[in-house]
What we know:
Layout: E1 2-9, E2 12-18, E3 24-28, E4 31-35, H1 40-52, E5 58-63, H2 69-75, E6 80-87, H3 90-97, H4 104-109, E7 113-117, H5 120-125, E8 131-136, H6 156-164, E9 166-176, H7 181-191, E10 195-203, E11 206-216
Parallel strand pairs: 5-6, 5-8, 6-7, 8-9
Antiparallel strand pairs: 1-2, 2-3, 3-4, 9-11, 10-11
The protein binds S-adenosylmethionine.
Amino acid sequence: METVARASSPRGELVLRRRDDGHLELRANGVFVMDTLEHTSERALADHALELADCDSLRVLVGGLGLGFTLGAVLADPRVVRCTVAEIEPDLVGWLRDGTVPHGPALLADSRVDVQIGDVADVLRAAATAYDVVLLDVDNGPDYLVHDTNAALYAEPALVTAQAALAPGGSLVIWSAARASELEHALREVFGNAEEQSYDVPGHGRVGQYFVYAARR
Ligand SMILES: C[S@@+](CC[C@H](N)C(=O)[O-])C[C@H]1O[C@@H](n2cnc3c(N)ncnc32)[C@H](O)[C@@H]1O
């Protein structure tokens, strides 16, 4: 295992490591965030949200750049005219920009991409655009948080803010590592509708299950 890059921020330590299998792994305060080996669910999040969108020209907000797989899936859809990415860790954005994460420079060079460094909650509150799709994958879901401060993002006031940032007919789609019934309930309260989808994802010698929650304005 080789440490490729390391950074400190108000949220603690962020480390990018290259494992013996050659894949990159991102850890925050020692907790596994994601790797470049298994990114089915990150892409599925985008694919699911884009399937729900029925207009020809899409403005998308991605909450959480991570290693860029959700962003890559968004950019693969030719209907996407603009993709704003909110990422709280400036060093991570730097690692994708400078090629420390090898597939990063091409992704971020796409002229449709606008990276906003900061908390996605603030980006949503200040939304100058009405988004057609808002994707949230900033944490492991409401019940297995990497950063406790993200709890508020899954609660009703933040969901109301996200709803206000959507154009009529637009969708909010949220990734979760575990079933999140309270989140589904909160989405129903705010949007009047909500849908849960589960995915089986192989990895680490087991099949895991991941969940995606969607609500439409
Ligand atoms: C699980 S990763 C996202 C993975 C991404 N979907 C991908 O395909 O690689 C979560 C990301 O959200 C960022 N993050 C965490 N909390 C955030 C917040 N409140 N606002 C914006 N970004 C946040 C983390 O730094 C991390 O890069």
